[in-house]
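SAMPLE LOG
Freezer: B-3
Tube label: C17
Construct: single chain, 137 aa
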Amino acid sequence: NKREIKHIGSKRFGVQFLLKSIYTNNGMLYFHTEIKNTSNIAFDIDYVSFKIVDKKVVKRTAMQEQVIEPLRAQNYVTVVHGKQSERTVFALEKFTIPDDKQLVIEVAEKDGGRHQTIVVENEDIVRANVIDELSIQ
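STRUCTURE (predicted):
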């Protein structure tokens, strides 16, 4: 539950989206995220997307992005009510990122504009903590 990655997060429009930590076990990566809503208006989550995109977007070139679908999500919430926070753990297939690319995790609000985006580098994924004991339900 404690926040092990301190430098990845975004805070805009009274909503804070944090990546608390990354874990690995049996060829799976687990992304522990938290959404804090400090406003009085509920934050309705439309979707959460994981995609690998280019770091530098050069003009007149096709931007390549590879979407990664989470295999499972523990405690996946669709609404974060005002003055509350919710934590979710996403399970993804193991992957690494080339040097010129980065992982972008995006949370979009349904019928709103308070989208949150965080960027994860390859060195953060390589430093993922190993889980020895894991109870899967």
